[in-house]
Amino acid sequence: MSQLLEFAKMHGAGNDFVVLDGIRQDLPPLEALARRLSDRHFGIGFDQLLVVRPSSSADFRMEIYNADGSQVEMCANGIRAFFKYLRDEGHTDRERVRVETLGGTVVPRWVGRNQVCVDMGPPVLAPAKIPTLLGDTSGEGPVLDASLSAAGETFLVSSLSMGNPHAVVYVDDLDASPVASLGPAIENHPSFPNRVNVEFVEIVSRERIRQRTWERGTGETLACGSGACAAAVASMLRGVSEPSLTVELRGGEIQIAWAGAGESVFMTGPAAHVFTGRIQVEGE
Fold first, then answer.
1. What is the pTM of this model?
2. Could you say which of 3.90.1150.10, 3.10.310.10, 3.40.640.10, 3.40.50.12780 is the CATH number of the domain covering 127-263?
3. Looking at 51, 118, 224, 267, which residue is catalytic?
4. Which of 42, 72, 141, 159 has its CA 20 to 30 A from that of 93?
5. Out of 8, 62, 64, 75, which one is annotated catalytic?
C-alpha cells in the first residue's frame, strides 16, 4: 500500500534536511525510508532526515537519520532548521523551546531574521564519554593533539563530544585537505567505538577559523553545527582562539561562544526553508 508523505526541505548554512512531521501524520519505518529519500537522483536529497515527535520530557523530540539510515544523537544545524519548522508550521509560537534528542535536551532560541541561537550544553571532554580510546580513558580529558594513524599517515587529533562524537584535525591548507580519503578512515577508526564526525580546521586568526566536515554516515557536508562547536571548543582549549569566534563553513558562517569549563556552548546561525512537497512511498 502506498502513502503520500508531506515533507519540508530546509537547510542551515548549506547543511540540508528533509523534515517529516510525525505528530500530524503517521510515518512508515524510517531507516529504509531515509536511505531512499536521501538519494539526490531518485529521492529528494538530504544530509539528514529530521522527524518531529512529541516528547514526555521536553516540548518536542527530534529524531535524526543519516543518509545511510543510521540514527544519530545530535545535529546542531538541524536543531535550528527543526525550530524554524516548528514555528512555520504552527506547532509553537514561543521564542524558546526545549527539544529532546538522543544526545540530550537542547534549547534553541529565536533571535530574528531567520537566525537561531542554540544552547548546546557543556562539551563532553572525558574520553570514555565521547567515546574515544585516545588519551587517558579513565580521566576527564580533554583529548588534545593525540597521535592517530590512519590511511597510511600519522597526525594529531583533538576529540570531544557535543552530544555526538567529533575528531578535530588542524591543517595548514583547508582547501587542499584530503577530506574524501582521510575523513572515512578516521570516521571508522577503532579509536572511536561509535564512529566519529571529522572536522578539518584551518586557523585564520584568534577570532576566525575555517572548517570542512566529514559527517559519519553521510560524507562531506557544506556545514556541521555541532562540528563547528567542537572545532571552536578544541581551538579555545588549545589556546589559539578567543572565547567567541566565527566558524567559516563551505555553506556559510556560524558564531560560537564558550565561557569555559562547565559552561554551555552557544551557537548562532541561520535556518532556511527551501520548499514543501509530497512524496509517494510504499508501505507494508
1. 0.90
2. 3.10.310.10
3. 224
4. 72
5. 75
